[in-house]
Structures
1.
Amino acid sequence: MSDLVEVLIIDHLTIKHAGEIFNPDLEIGDFMNFHSYLKECHMEIEEKILFPALKKGRWGDERWFFTKIDQLISDHRLIDSMVQNIVNWYRSGEMGMVIEHLPLYFNILVDHNNSEESYIFGRWKMISDDERFSAMNEARGVIKNFGLKRYLGITGLSEGAFMYMFGPEPAIEKQVA
């Protein structure tokens, strides 16, 4: 089984690659589907699993570190509002604004992801093994809620790679009546 941060790094590579090839003339649905993945999978995993687990730790620089996490969460809100603007411009026929802001959206995403990799991800290996294992199971649930086929389609991962990274489906304990 892989580590949660390794999964997020693969997401970061997906995001970077998408920014290099995304065509603003494509149907807006493709862009909205990509952003749904970003918001409902990637950001969800960071905000509901990674960041809270890291905020439980004692690092010696908690004030700075927790402020950095809060800034990254604020970035997520900024990125989401940019998407709303891009979609609105697209729908109102303001393609000049879309063409101007789409690369900015991806540049901000890449800069944001670089900050996570530089300031946040390195601390993940200091979290307990039990917490890291539990985080992978929670992340699997987030991805399944989003839709495994959609996730695989956007990231380019095969089902085999997904199974390698996440391991076998956790057994559900049967309740005895």
Note: The radius of gyration is 18 Å.
2.
Amino acid sequence: MPALARKLGLRDVVAPDLLPYLADAAEFAEHECTRLAQVVGGGVCGTAPSVLVQTAALQVAGSRYAFAKGDLVTGSRLGDAARANLLSAHDLCAKEAAARPRDPMADLDRRLGITGGKP
């Protein structure tokens, strides 16, 4: 998976007061991609949904930063934009999962709670 889909893709950020928000964004994006893979994507969160999650994470970071600085309008707008990207990532992850070829035996094992050939 490309670095932009695994990391925030930022280089040499020069705003030290923004760095804690970016660290939170990286943690959020990793958690959300893992959650999407488990809950929506059949074990996979593809590159495109991951990029949407990364963008949303940066938007949330910017939103929190703006709120902390007292800029309520920018904070709200970035929060709304993050919501849209998270919904799009969820939808795209679901569409990719539905389009992926299925292994009927693996699906049966998953439904029965069988892992590694043992219940």
Note: The CA atoms of residues 8 and 109 lie 35 Å apart.
3.
Amino acid sequence: MSPNLAPVAIMVPVLGFAIWRRVRSQFGRQPIRRRRMWVRIVMFALVGVLMALGGLYNPRLLEGLTGGVVLGAVIGVLGLRLTRFERSPDGSDGYIPNPWIGALLTALLVARLAWRFLVVMPQMQHLPAAGPGVPPAIGNSPLTLLVLGLLVGYYVTYFSGLLVHHRRFERTQAGARLP
């Protein structure tokens, strides 16, 4: 196996597993797991900040990321409006996300990463083994950062909104129990 293909052989199964888990979580009733949502909010925000710091050397990359975050936040608000909230018979609060938004975002991410991979991979195969050049990067495109920013903005907004709804729902339930 070529040394340039070793990272690809590792990344493809890991990305496949991550995409499978992501698709699975877009369908059906999902329980509200506050701690896990907070961790996701922090992780997505951290990824967004790190991508923004990486994009400081190229304003076009930063513009793509910023546009994606703003558009993702708008789609996150739309996703919250289309999400159904319910209480199960066992008393746990849950939500049913809109599968179309999740499927669209997943398809967009997979398509963009596949396209970038197809563009970058031939360039990496022709690099000299110890050449002075810097290998091309998957995230070195404003459109790729727009898609990644779209996910960051969507999930930070969506999970924050779910937590706000959960808090309101608990208050209304507590108020309904008082005489």
Note: The beta strands are 30-31, 84-87, 93-96.
4.
Amino acid sequence: MRHLISILFLCFLLGNASCGFYSFTGASISPEVETVSIGKFPNVSGGGSAGLSQSFTEALKDKFVSETDLTLVDRNGDIDFQGSITNWNIESKSPTGNQTTARNQLTITVEVSYTNSIEDKKWNKSFSQYASYESKQSLSNVEDQLVEEINDQLVTDIFNEALVNW
């Protein structure tokens, strides 16, 4: 039985190898695609901390370096990402009975331009994610944690849109 399972697993891996590179992250990348370039995503939203642009850009780079075999290059990668942070917004949520709110929600939106020059694929999309926090807390005390959480979600969404072909 163990040998049968091993043989089936090997057939699965070989079958997927013929369709391009497959990783256990779900990424499906053509073997001809070798490099990725990720431009700085400037913050044009008018809100957020001074480090928002840098933290998002680095999170996106880290995702591609850690979960693919692609080489990160400064420009003209086989896969290229460009864009900007277009929205940084705080909204009051969960109203209470005494004209206050129990929670606030931070939303960040990123416009992304994707180009895969090897497979001749392009798209431009907007990605938004949010995280909430108790209104009793000062934003300055929780902003770094919220931004990290939102960046992780945004980067995962972008990665999946670009490379995971479900």
Note: The first strand starts at residue 21 and ends at 22.
